[in-house]
Amino acid sequence: MEGIISTGLIGISLGGQYALLALGFTLIFGILGVVNFAHGGFYVLGGYVAYSAVQFLGLPYALAVALAAASTAVLGFLFERLLLERVIDDHLATLMLTLGLYLMMSSGILATFGPESPAFDFPLQGVLRAGRLYLPLENIVVIGVCLTAIVLVYLVIYKTDFGRALRALADDRRVAMAQGMRPTLLFPLAFALATGLAGLTGALVTPILSLAPHVGDPVLAISFLVVILGGLGSIAGATIAAFAVGMVEAYSAVYLGGSKGALLLFVVVLIVLVIRPSGLMGQTAREA
Amino acid sequence: MSTSLTTLLRKAGAAEIAVIVIIAAAFAVPVLTANPLAYSLTNQILIAATASFSVYIMLRMNLMTFAVPTFMAIGGYTSAICGLNYGMTDVIVIGLLCFFIPALFALPIGALVLRLRGVYFVLVTFVLTEITQLLLFETPTLTGGSNGLIGMPALTFFGVSLADNRAVVQTTIGLALVAAIVTAVVTRVFRQQFAGIEENEMLSQSLGLVVWHYKAFGFVIAGGVSGLAGFALVNMLLTAHPTSFAPLSSVNFIAYAFIGGQASILGPLVGAGVLVWAAELFSLRGEYSQMLFGLLIVVVVLSARAGIVGTLFNLATLMKGRNQPLRLAATEERP
């Protein structure tokens, strides 16, 4: 029984990470209509920025994480403003641009840091024991930061003028622009918010999992999986799906082992799509 | 030129004929040279082009598929299993199997994924390639798992062994030629139906077009064409391994079609030629090769939205347009 609960807590930890990633991914799609193939790249970059800040600048880990989130957000802002904005209405072109950026980012990291995984450890080690329950402290920190970030994103999107403007632009860009909204500023800011979340996740999670130039590939696949399951563009759907995916992954890793868990996950997604093609909370996915 | 030949050429389409002629001309490569680099480039370009034809077929219906590696894997493993388990070596028989078995798999998969459109279709086909990759690792008795399948007997063509490098290139060219002909015929014969679906699926349906039939047919043919690419790849590498069919490789095939120009069948061929050649050139720069490849994609997307072929065509049209008034003016000035 204790094993089931401990695994569930690990699942929540995974779900929190996936939710942060998927929130950024689905925000970019929901607001800009862009499938961001570079999302995994921003995750990796966040990890390397945090690692560099700790290793070379001697910054405390918490500050390094904040720096990673800020720098990936700035890069995202500049990328959207200078390049993506030029082809924003062409889905295929935006996909290709983000893919080009991902190739440049991952190979830039590879050229700078080499192919080996650097020694980047989570500063807090140890296990929390409650009776016969065991939970690594690092996972508790990850859960705490992720849940805080998710709540903040919700507050920004649903309770601020900035969030309302973004949702208005996502809903009907022409009407929103007629009301004075400026997509040339708001779109880069939305992109920055999303890439900042990816960078934050990378900085937070790579010391626990692994940091290497190509760890962004599976992250992209997970982001896809979560947004498909949750429903494209749906923030609530992405959050629920992320935790569901985290749970399935944690339990299947423990009780099935190997890559059977991942396979089960993908099959579950396919079954959901057969029953409900628009995902858990998507409404217009078929037309997306 | 006789009238019947002119009519045939017009029906076939200039781009389609050009693609078939260019690929057929590649048979000259193994005759003219024994250079391993030339062989390697020809192999890589034509395998990439074959896979991109599959993307092109679906793009005709405004569907961007990431499922190419899935069907390539089915084709590639079919050829390996035929050789290893059943001792089959005839290139024509294996070629037919590598086309029809992936096409057969495409039918039920299509029934599932063709219900979706746009970005959702993109994401779901990407997930499909992830599932394929995991299945290849999780079924070692059939696919060799992480070891892959090696040691296939050499192919034969009417009893002649196709074991040496020259024969491997010729096999790749032959398979690419078949794929190009199939793609050209399908996209020309169903040009109007595909264009109707691309322009407005709902309107086409309301006007009586059975959209589902054409989408399913296109997906099945695209699956078969991908299978041929997988066969050529396994034949070139002499191994069928899951990493040869990585999910992200689908992005490359889309990039070839997009950078070359998605409006014409020449696009995938030109895109594959330029990008594979560029990747080979960039590989001299070691770890910077992917960066240069990414930069090339960004530059082409920003400066040549219609792709290489589309931009050249637009430039030619522009030049023609500029020349037209000059000629008229010259005519008017004539006494």
Give a description of the structure.
The complex is a heterodimer of chains A (about 290) and B (about 325). Chain A contains eleven helices and two strands. With about 290 residues, chain A is mostly helical. In chain A, strands 1-2 form a two-stranded antiparallel sheet. The longest helix of chain A has about 30 residues, at about 1-30. Chain A is globular and about 60 Å long. Chain A starts with a helix and ends in a 13-residue tail after the last helix. The mean pLDDT of chain A is about 85. With about 325 residues, chain B is mostly helical. Chain B is about 75% helix and about 0% strand. Chain B has helices at about 5-10, 15-25, 30, 35-60, 70-85, 90-115, 120-140, 140-145, 165-190, 190-200, 200-205, 210-235, 250-260, 265-280, 290-305, 305-335, and strands at about 150, 155, 160, 240. In chain B, strands 1-4 form a two-stranded antiparallel sheet. Chain B has a two-stranded antiparallel sheet with strand order 2-3. In chain B, β2 (about 155) and β3 form a beta hairpin. In chain B, α13 (about 250-260) packs parallel to α16 (about 305-335). The longest helix of chain B has 27 residues, at about 210-235. The radius of gyration of chain B is 21 Å and the shape is globular. Residues about 325-335 of chain B have low confidence and may be disordered. Classes of the chains: A mainly alpha (about 290), B mainly alpha (about 325). At the A-B interface, α4, α9 and α11 of A face α7, α13 and α15 of B.
What is this structure's SSE topology?
The complex is a heterodimer of chains A (288) and B (335).
Chain A: H1 2-32, H2 39-55, H3 61-82, H4 91-113, E1 127-130, E2 133-136, H5 137-159, H6 161-171, H7 173-178, H8 183-205, H9 216-230, H10 235-255, H11 260-275
Antiparallel strand pairs in A: 1-2
Helix pairs in contact in A: 1-5, 1-8, 1-9, 1-10, 2-3, 2-4, 2-8, 2-9, 3-8, 5-6, 6-8, 9-10, 10-11
Chain B: H1 3-12, H2 14-25, H3 28-32, H4 36-59, H5 68-86, H6 91-113, H7 118-138, H8 140-143, E1 149-150, E2 156-157, E3 160-161, H9 165-189, H10 191-199, H11 201-206, H12 211-237, E4 239-240, H13 249-260, H14 266-282, H15 289-303, H16 307-333
Antiparallel strand pairs in B: 1-4, 2-3
Helix pairs in contact in B: 2-9, 4-9, 4-12, 4-13, 4-14, 5-6, 5-7, 5-12, 6-12, 9-12, 13-14, 13-16, 14-15, 14-16
